[in-house]
Specification:
Layout (H helix, E strand, L loop, with lengths): L4 H37 L2 H20 L5 H24 L1
């Protein structure tokens, strides 16, 4: 355990930041899961709406450096690829 006052303060700050960062990361994961679930169900219109929220959340996390910007870009790209594939399959059927 820390004995120095500044170290104690750093520990308190880290706890707050960790909780805040976890919130952003968890909400991004939740939106991505919802989009994938909606795509699997075939509800593409709703999936696109939720994808916009997922995009926004990933961008916010990347802007705050909670996620690496490349990581956020990769997740967005995979999400859009899944949506595009589902749209193409839907139009063929």
């Amino acid at each position: 355990m820390a004995n120095i006052q500044s170290a104690k303060k750093r520990i308190r700050q880290t706890k707050k930041r960790t909780l805040r960062n976890r919130m952003y990361r968890a909400s991004a994961r939740t939106y991505i899961k919802k989009v994938r679930q909606l795509i699997a169900e075939g509800n593409l219109e709703e999936a696109e709406k939720v994808a916009r929220k997922a995009y926004s959340t990933l961008d916010k996390a990347a802007r705050r450096r909670i996620l690496h910007p490349g990581n956020a870009a990769r997740r967005k790209g995979r999400l859009m690829a899944a949506l595009a594939k589902a749209r193409a399959e839907h139009q063929e059927a």
